[in-house]
Write a structure and sequence with these properties.
Largest sheet: 9 strands, mixed
Helix content: 25-40%
Number of strands: 15
CATH topology of the largest domain: TIM Barrel
CATH superfamily of the largest domain: Aldolase class I
Number of helices: 16
Number of domains: 2
Bound molecules: iron/sulfur cluster
Radius of gyration: 22 Å
Strand content: 15-25%
CATH architecture of the largest domain: Alpha-Beta Barrel
């Protein structure tokens, strides 16, 4: 049996936040109900369920907690009926403050949900209003207390730094206020000004100035952004939370299993509008089963051209990425003709192994690379590794290769060098 992670996308929100480019929008009850029917059909029709055991489930969005508790219960019952879930599977639901009352939280517990991810972003009401969030800090506190009262012992809080008008001091206050509540996990991302959002209209020029190294007008400067990152790591470490990924921190034992699976290449099935899946169709050596287009062809500087693996029965093959249609009507009609299907070449998989694995502070295992791909990491990436180790951006310790503290700061630049094609 192979491990599988499940992701259910609930694309509904009370209203759209000003910075958000996720596939989500407000919807009335009738639309939500139609969507739930389509989602259930898709889950039921997933093939080869018996080949898998499910290690984690993530109900994300959007705002899954705006659905009625009864509907969440129906979805969970369906998952338990259709899939073999490991007894200790991590089951997370994303909630926004003010959308999950005690009644809903009770139902979540009863149906096996054991992790809550709360979208806070900031403890400053002015910043929350600017982001277009539906809640205040006080609303968040009420939800947080209700979640604890219901007995949840694994809570994540989402935070966002580098907001327009935010100062290092206001970010520090947000961290201090959240840490006083002692959540088990914190995700702390920097705001990205995404095209198609109302923030893009207002702050794109500012973001360009910052990229050019010029002082932005309303966004924090690059130095301030770095300082926010530094303070985050310091304050969270002092509270016993370890940074285990570029933007994720947890008390020991509370690292998000679902995300770690994603960063380490565990197969996942995504259900819902625009959801992605990564599924391995066989685990045979490349040279037997992969077509010409899949052959490795590393050609960038420092990356050696290597032949397809030979003699490694462990090497993987046949991994394919699927992406559901983003058109709501097509999804409701069960019309998956617009689904993107991308067979992944060995090069794609090696690249992902490196740049997803290196997101984690413990990095990647050289033995695991060899086991999966039949070639050593040295053969494929020797030049890149040597260069970045010499520059102090990567470190090699025993079997592991990981970003250094400086490498974590410059992770985008380092990751780009692991592209093979
Ligand atoms: S609640 Fe989340 S998904 Fe919904 S609009 Fe805001 S940021 Fe986007």
């Amino acid at each position: 049996m192979r491990d599988l992670e499940l992701y259910l996308h609930i694309p509904f929100c009370v209203r759209k936040c000003a910075y958000c480019d996720f596939l989500s929008a407000p919807a009335d009850r009738e639309q939500q109900e139609a969507y739930l029917r389509a989602l259930k059909r898709e889950i039921e029709s997933f093939p080869d369920k018996e080949a898998y055991q499910v290690s984690s489930v993530f109900l994300g969005g959007g705002t899954p907690s705006i659905l009625s508790g009864k509907w969440i219960a129906e979805l969970m019952e369906l998952l338990f009926r259709e899939f073999r879930l490991e007894p200790d599977a991590e089951i997370t639901i994303e909630c926004n403050p003010g959308t999950a009352d005690a009644g809903k939280l009770r139902i979540y517990r009863e149906v096996g949900i054991n992790r809550l991810s709360l979208g806070l972003q900031s403890a400053d009401d002015r910043e929350l209003a600017l982001l277009g969030r539906i809640h205040t800090w006080t609303d968040f506190l009420r939800t947080y207390e209700a979640v604890r009262e219901e007995g949840f012992v694994n809570i994540n809080v989402d935070l966002m730094s580098a907001l327009p008008g935010q100062t290092v001091q206001s970010w520090e206050r947000t961290l201090a206020q959240v840490l006083a509540l002692a959540p088990e996990h914190i995700s702390a991302y920097s705001l990205i000004i995404e095209e198609g959002t109302s923030f893009y209209e207002r702050y794109h020029d500012d973001a360009v100035l910052r990229e050019r190294g010029e002082p932005p007008r309303e966004l924090p400067s690059e130095e301030e952004e770095r300082e926010m990152y530094r303070i985050t790591e310091q304050m969270l470490a002092a509270a016993g939370m370890q940074r285990y990924e570029i933007s994720n921190y947890a008390l020991p034992g509370y690292e998000c299993r679902h995300n770690i699976g994603y960063w380490t290449g565990v197969e996942y099935a995504g259900f819902g509008l625009g959801a992605s899946s990564l599924l391995g169709l066989s685990r045979k050596p490349y040279h037997d089963h992969c077509d010409k287009g899949s052959e490795m062809s590393g050609h960038a500087q420092g990356k050696k051209q290597v032949s397809p693996a030979s003699g490694s029965e462990q090497a993987e093959c046949g991994f394919t990425r699927f992406r559901n249609p983003e058109n709501m009507q097509a999804y409701l009609d069960g019309d998956f003709s617009g689904r993107e299907i991308t067979p992944l070449s060995p090069n794609d998989r090696m690249e992902e192994f490196m740049f997803l694995g290196l997101r984690m502070t413990k990095g990647i295992s050289e033995r695991e690379f060899q086991k999966r791909f039949g070639n050593s990491v040295e053969e494929v990436y020797g030049g890149v590794l040597k260069r970045h180790c010499a520059d102090g951006l990567l470190k090699r310790e025993g079997d592991r290769i990981a970003l250094t503290a400086r490498g974590l700061d410059l992770s985008n630049t380092v990751m780009a060098d692991f592209l093979l094609e």
